[in-house]
Amino acid sequence: MKKILICSLLVWGVSHSQLNAQWIESGKSKNTIWEYSFSGGKGTEKGRGLEKISIPSVHDFLPKPSSGEVRISTADISLTDGSSFTLNGNCETPCLTMVHTSGNYPQPAPSKFVARNFAGTSKVMSAHFKMSLNHETNNKQAIWYLAVGDASNELFTNKNIAPSISNNGPSDHTLYTVLRFRKVAFNGKYGLQVRHGNGTIKWAWQNVPGVGLNKGKEYQIDLFFNNTDQPQDYTHNGTAKTLAAAAYHIYIDNVQKGENLTTLNRNVVHRGNNVNQYTGNLSGFAFMSREGAQSFTDGTAPADPVEQDNSASANLSDFKIIHKKEK
Questions:
Q1: Closest C-alpha to 234, from 225, 6, 136, 82
Q2: Domain residue limits, the chain
Q3: Integer Cα distance of 178 and 116 in angstroms
Q4: Residue 193 CA to chain centroid, in angstroms?
Q5: Coil, strand or helix: which one is 115?
Q6: Which of 224, 252, 271, 287 is least surrounded by Cβ atoms within 10 Å, i.e. has the fewest?
Q7: Cα gap 164→178, rounded to integer Å
Q8: Which tens digits make up the pLDDT trace of 275-313?
Q9: How far is CA 220 from the centre of its chain?
Q10: What's the pLDDT at 15?
Q11: How far apart are CA 25 and CA 27, in angstroms?
């Protein structure tokens, strides 16, 4: 029997005054805040090929957003009967509960929460949320992806499309970047990797030093993305910071990570003599599992064999997106 471990995705608004990070406004450029709450609904959706989309005028499982679109989805094919999503189950605050995909080895079978076309989109965006990662006792592997890019990218609109992890794929043309929180060892911690171009048609993954997330511990995540060709200024915990052009910054529990890395930048796609990179608005955000979680099956972990299953979870809360946009 395949194992299923539920995870909670908590997303609700926090007032502007409570947020300890924002873009520094100048001239006509102001902060535009997008908030989303899972309050007002209850129930569970489960299965392969699932897709539920809510917009301001349509409620389809997920509560209606104030602008843009929110959706949940699972791939048409997976090794088990698909992931599930539960609204406001066993949680004290408005939440969405997700199940990690079992994958479709050797192919991906993504399970996603997507937000796109939020109000005030621009090339300068930050995302803020709390996150805890969990897994069952015999779990070996659990990987959670975060992607940012253009809202029309297939990654945000097609339930079967997953981010490319090796060769460049068609969906890469309008993605800004992809990050992943990754556990690949029995009793291991979750590291953080960022995707970047290596000058060929293939992607490379950079380990971010100093990241080892413990099971079940809640962490504050702050991400600042700059898709312009000019530096952008912001404040974090009252400290003024400058973000270089076409680059991004990562904070975990208010500590900047990867500050000295040269790979925290806009993804560049190389195709022959052509070099492609997305330079437009950052209007799509996704949090997902892609390949299956893995567990040892004989009860004597860390010995083989392993099976693809749903034995990991991720818990997100206090989610907010801020764009710096001319008004």
A1: 225
A2: 6-16+24-326
A3: 16
A4: 12
A5: strand
A6: 271
A7: 9
A8: 888 999 999 999 999 999 999 876 655 566 788 998 888
A9: 14
A10: 38
A11: 7
Asked if residue 163 has a cis previous peptide bond (ω within 30° of 0), the answer is no
253-318-30 Cα angle (round to 5): 90
What's the confidence (pLDDT) of residue 209?
97
Q: What is the widest separation between alpha-carbon atoms in the chain?
A: 63
Instruction: Return the amino acid letter for 321.
Output: I
Cα(144)–Cα(174) distance, integer angstroms:
20
CB-CB contact of 266 with 177 (8 Å)? yes
- DSSP assignments along 187-249, one per residue: TPPBEEEEEEE-SSSBEEEEEPTT--BPTT--EEEEEEEE-SSS-EEEEETTEEEEE-TTBEE
Separation of CA 70 from chain center: 14
> Which tokens go with 225?
């993305």
Query: Which CATH number applies to 6-16+24-326: 1.10.3470, 2.40.128, 2.60.120, 1.10.150?
Result: 2.60.120
Q: What is the pLDDT of residue 197?
A: 84
The two tokens of residue 55 are 């917009």
Sign of the alpha-carbon torsion through 198, 204, 205, 207: negative
Contact between 23 and 232 under an 8 Å Cβ cutoff? The reply is yes
Compute the distance between CA of residue 78 and CA of residue 105 in angstroms, rounded to an integer. Answer: 8
Q: Distance (Å, rounded) from C-alpha 80 to C-alpha 59?
A: 28
Q: Using CA atoms, how far apart are residues 117 and 63, in angstroms rounded to an integer?
A: 16
Write phi, then psi, for 283 (nearest 5 degrees): -120, 5
